[in-house]
Amino acid sequence: MNEVVIVEAVRTPVGRRNGLLSQLRPDEMLSHVFKELISRSGIEAKEVEDVIAGCVTQVGEQASDVARMAALIAGFPIEVPGVTIDRQCGSSQQAVHFASQAIASGDMDVVIAGGVESMSRVPMFSNMKGTSYSEELCERYEMINQGLSAERIAEKWGLSKQELDDYAVKSHERALQAIKEGRFEKETIPLEVVDENGEKITVRLDEGPRPGTTLEVLAELKPAFKENGKITAGNASQMSDGASAVLLMSRKKAEALGLRPRFRITARSVVGSDPTLMLTGPVPATYKVLQKAGLSINDIDLFEVNEAFAPVPLFWMKETGVDHSKLNVNGGAIALGHPLGATGTKLMTTLMHELERSGKRYGLQAVCEGLGMANATIIERLEVEE
C-alpha cells in the first residue's frame, strides 16, 4: 500500500448566506481553490489524475458535475477528469477518503479532493424539488428534520438550553480570537467581489463570527424546530457559502516532484447510524478510526467535530471524555458557518494549519451526516518525525 500524504490545503473565507460571497457562482468559487492548490504546490495541473469534490445540493449552478466544471474553469487540461459526490455534510471528507484510497491502492498518484456549497444561490433541499421520503422508508424509520434530531440528542444526553448556548458563545469567542490572531490567514485565499454599490472589494475574512454573542442574547432567540425546544438559530450551524480543497499524493510521487509532504493520512472510517437521531455517528466513527490507526483517544492532540448543532460536540465529549480544550479550538460551524459540501475539507484545512501552528502531531476529524452516517479521519503531521 502506498503512503498517502497531503501536500497543500486551502479554503475560501466562509460567507454568510446572502452575504458577500453570494455574488460568486459555486463552480467559479471552487475553481479558485483548485488554481490556488496548483499555484502553492508548484506542480503542473496535468499531474492531477482526478478531481473529487463534495456537493450536497446538486442542482442549478451546482449540477452537471461541479467538480469537472470547476477544473475546466480553473484551466486544468481537458485530460484531468472530475467527479462530484454526495455524502451529505461529510461529502468533501469522503472525497478525501476516496482520493486516498485510490492513491493507497496504487491506482493513482496525485488527486485533488475538495468541495463547495453556495447555500445562497442554491438553497438547501432545492434538489428534492418538493418530493418527500419514500413511504417504504418511512415504514421502516421515523424520518424527521435534523433540528428535531438535535432536540432528541439534547434530551437523551441531558443537555440543558444553557449548556447549548454556552457552547455556542464559546464557538464565537474562539473564532473571533482566531481571526484576531490571524490564525486563518495562511489557509484562506482572498476572493474579489463587487459590493452593492458596484465597488470591487476583496473578501479575506470569514463573515460568520459575531462579536457580542452572549448567553443573554442567545436566550432571546425562539426555538427553531419545536415549541419550547432548545435548538435555536444561535446554537445551530450557520448556512453559508464556501469552497475548500486539499492536494493528496503518494509519498513517493511527492518526493519525486521535489515536494514536502506535510501530513500523512493515518486512517479513515465511515459508519452508518440511527437515521432518526441522525447525528450520533461521530462517536462510533471516532472509535472505529482510532482502532484502524492503532491509537488511543489520548494519542490525539486536536479534534474537529462539526458543529451541526451544539448537542453534537457536547454529547461527543460526554461519550469520549475528550476535554473541550482539544476540540474545535478555533471555533466551529456555529460561528464560522457550514457550507455543506465544502465543510469536510474546510475542517481538514483548519486542522492541518492548527497542528502546524501549535507544533502538535495527531488530529482527528469527525462529521455527522444526514440520514445517519459519519466519516472520521486521522492525520499525522510529518515534521514531528523528522
Secondary structure layout plus pairing:
Elements: E1 4-11, E2 15-16, H1 26-41, E3 50-54, H2 66-73, E4 82-85, H3 91-104, E5 110-118, H4 135-140, H5 146-156, H6 161-180, E6 191-194, E7 200-203, H7 215-219, E8 240-250, H8 251-256, E9 263-272, H9 282-293, E10 302-305, H10 311-320, H11 333-336, H12 343-358, E11 362-369, E12 373-381
Parallel strand pairs: 3-4, 3-5, 10-11
Antiparallel strand pairs: 1-8, 1-9, 2-8, 5-8, 6-7, 9-12, 11-12
Helix pairs in contact: 1-2, 3-12
Quick recap of the structure?
By secondary structure, the protein is α+β, with helices and mostly antiparallel strands. The protein is 33% helix and 20% strand. It holds the Pfam family Thiolase_N.
Give a written overview of the molecule.
By secondary structure, this protein is an alpha+beta fold. It has a domain at 4-121 and 239-378: 3-Layer(aba) Sandwich (Peroxisomal Thiolase, Chain A, domain 1), CATH 3.40.47.10. The protein contains twelve helices and twelve strands. The strands form two sheets. Strands 1, 2, 3, 4, 5, 8, 9, 10, 11 and 12 form a ten-stranded mixed sheet that branches. It has a two-stranded antiparallel ribbon with strand order 6-7. Helix 2 (66-73) links the parallel strand 3 (50-54) and strand 4. The longest helix has 20 residues, at 161-180. It starts with a strand and ends in a 5-residue tail after the last strand.
Oligomer: single chain
Overall mean pLDDT score? Answer: 97
Order of helices and strands: EEHEHEHEHHHEEHEHEHEHHHEE
According to DSSP, the number of beta strands is 12
Gyration radius over CA = 20 Å
- How far the N terminus sits from the C terminus, by CA atoms, comes to 22 Å
Low-pLDDT windows of residues: none
Q: How much helical structure, as a percent, in the residues? A: 25-40%
Name the overall outline. globular
The CATH superfamily of the domain at 4-121 and 239-378 appears as Thiolase/Chalcone synthase
Major sheet description: 10 strands, mixed
* CATH secondary-structure class of the domain at 4-121 and 239-378: Alpha Beta
Structural class: alpha+beta
